[in-house]
Amino acid sequence: MTIERGTRVRVIRDPHHGPSPWPDQPTAVVGAAGFDPEYEVVEASDGPTRSYWVTFDDPQWDAEGDGPYVTAQVLERYLVPI
Q1: pLDDT of residue 69
Q2: Is the dihedral of CA 78, 51, 29, 58 positive or negative?
Q3: Could you read off the pLDDT of 51-73 as tens digits, one per residue?
Q4: Fewer beta carbons below 10 Å: N end or C end of the chain?
Q5: How far apart are the C-alpha atoms of 74 and 21, rounded to whole Å?
Q6: What percent of the chain has pLDDT over 90?
Q7: 65, 38 in Cβ contact below 8 A?
Q8: Which is nearest to 79 in space by CA: 42, 48, 45, 39?
């Protein structure tokens, strides 16, 4: 499944690996200024997967307490269109 630029999404927690990179399950829009294309294929622990640039609705802190971030690169499996 390809998620198109401009799609509103929720960044969900990883149900198998702790709080995930974005524990507050923020909402965002796919695409971020200066990042094109909006996704790239990256090597994840379970093989190749798409990773999308998103722009958060509100600045976010990651699971390690770093931030706030306005944009981030997020694996496709954590994105749910809303």
Answers
A1: 96
A2: positive
A3: 999 999 999 999 889 999 999 99
A4: N
A5: 9
A6: 55
A7: no
A8: 39
Question: Over the range 33-64, which residues count as b (16 or more CB within 10 Å of their CB) and which as e?
Answer: eebeebbeeeeeeeeeebbbbbebeeebebee
CA distance 55 to 60: 10
- State both tokens at 5: 């630029």
The per-residue pLDDT for range 23-38, each reduced to its tens digit, is 899 999 999 777 777 7
Q: Which residues contact 34 (CB under 8 A, 6 or more apart)?
A: none
Amino acid in position 31: G
Amino acid at 56: F
Q: CA 24, CA 61: separation in Å to the nearest integer?
A: 8
Q: Distance between CA 11 and CA 78 in Å, rounded?
A: 5
